[in-house]
């Protein structure tokens, strides 16, 4: 059998496994001896007493601070100082608006990336303002997100515009914004101190007069005329014969009105009973062709009389007529 070599092959095949087993047994023995020696040394080593450092007793106030202040107060104070310095620098350097805008843009960008971007905008009720103007007034732009859009703030900004009397803001998630506005109507042109403005019926100044589309609006002039125009023009509308030839209504001394007609004639109305004065003025033009006469002013301020001021040419003609009559009368008397 030895000559066939079977025993030799068997020993060679078992050699590596035997070596590994022997190595494992040896490692276990060494580890056990090391642990035994380590614990033996710990049992023999005397316990160390903590070293006591003598120091003076702390001050009473320091002791109170150490006792009652929360832990990590130093870290909190350091962070507070750092953030306080940062805030002071932003305010002192005039960068508050920039910082606020950057912070707002950052959170809006995060919301937009999460699916809350404003993709559709509906605006109802606009006539004078364009859609872009409404959005700009409300502070809505391409960076705005529906999630962080403050509807009350947008509404307040819109109502601050003189053209917008009221506004309703509706957020429809995830991406639709609905804006309904009520616009004021241009009512008249108001002139004061040489400046011409477009006003609403309640006297609110809508914008400076720069557009010819308001050319046909009635003109009121003087301090206080903006808030008193609605009632007076409503009264004047009852007398279309007078209204059709009126160029401007002038509020005098914040008490009464004058009319400036298109041919330059001035009509001085009384402070009270304005309706009766306008009715009488309308009858005089209908019966006596008053507005076609060569006159420059009609004074109706006195209740019992009408004073008419002739033009310069008419006055001269009247004086010549009186002279002729007077000379003829003298000639007749002498005859």
Topology pattern, helix = H, strand = E: HHHHEHHEEEEEEHHEEEHEEH
Low-pLDDT residue spans: 1-20
- The gyration radius over C-alpha positions equals 50 Å
Distance between the termini: 196 Å
Look at the helices and sheets and give the structural class: alpha/beta
Keyphrases for this structure?
10 helices; elongated; disordered N terminus
How is the secondary structure organized here?
Elements: H1 6-44, H2 60-68, H3 73-92, H4 96-116, E1 120-124, H5 131-138, H6 151-159, E2 164-172, E3 176-183, E4 188-192, E5 195-199, E6 205-208, E7 219-221, H7 225-236, H8 240-243, E8 246-252, E9 256-261, E10 266-268, H9 274-288, E11 295-299, E12 307-310, H10 312-334
Parallel strand pairs: 1-3, 4-7, 7-8, 10-11
Antiparallel strand pairs: 2-3, 4-5, 5-6, 8-9, 9-10, 11-12
Explain what you see.
The chain is an alpha/beta fold. The protein has 10 helices and 12 strands. A 9-stranded mixed sheet has the order 6-5-4-7-8-9-10-11-12. It has a 3-stranded mixed sheet with strand order 1-3-2, covered by helices on one side. Strand 8 (246-252) and strand 9 (256-261) form a beta hairpin.
TL;DR?
By secondary structure, the protein is of the alpha/beta class.
């Amino acid at each position: 059998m030895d000559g066939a070599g079977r025993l030799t092959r068997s020993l060679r095949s078992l050699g590596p496994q035997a070596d590994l087993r022997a190595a494992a047994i040896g490692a276990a023995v060494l580890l056990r001896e090391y642990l035994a020696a380590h614990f033996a040394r710990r049992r023999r080593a005397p316990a160390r007493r903590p070293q006591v450092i003598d120091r003076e007793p702390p001050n009473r106030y320091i002791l109170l601070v150490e006792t009652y202040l929360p832990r990590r107060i130093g870290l909190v104070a350091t962070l507070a100082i750092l953030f306080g310095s940062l805030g002071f620098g932003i305010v002192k350097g005039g960068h508050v608006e920039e910082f606020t805008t950057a912070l707002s843009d950052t959170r809006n960008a995060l919301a937009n990336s999460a699916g809350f971007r404003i993709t559709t905008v509906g605006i109802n009720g606009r006539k004078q303002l364009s859609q872009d103007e409404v959005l700009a007034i409300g502070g809505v732009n391409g960076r705005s997100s529906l999630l962080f859009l403050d509807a009350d703030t947008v509404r307040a900004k819109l109502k601050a515009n003189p053209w917008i009397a009221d506004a309703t803001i509706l957020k429809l998630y995830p991406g639709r914004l609905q804006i309904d506005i009520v616009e004021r109507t241009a009512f008249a042109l108001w002139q004061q101190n040489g400046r011409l403005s477009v006003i609403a019926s309640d006297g609110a100044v809508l914008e400076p007069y720069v557009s010819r589309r308001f050319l046909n609006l009635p003109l009121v002039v003087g301090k206080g005329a903006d808030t008193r125009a609605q009632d007076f023009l409503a009264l004047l509308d009852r007398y279309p014969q007078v209204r059709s030839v009126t160029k401007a209504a002038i509020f005098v001394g914040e008490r009464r009105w004058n009319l400036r007609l298109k041919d330059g004639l001035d009509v001085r109305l009384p402070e009270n009973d304005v309706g009766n004065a306008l009715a009488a003025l309308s009858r005089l033009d209908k019966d006596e062709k008053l507005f076609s006469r060569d006159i420059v002013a009609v004074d109706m301020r006195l209740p019992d009389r009408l004073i008419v001021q002739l033009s310069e040419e008419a006055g001269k003609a009247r004086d010549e007529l009186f002279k002729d009559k007077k000379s003829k009368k003298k000639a007749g008397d002498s005859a």
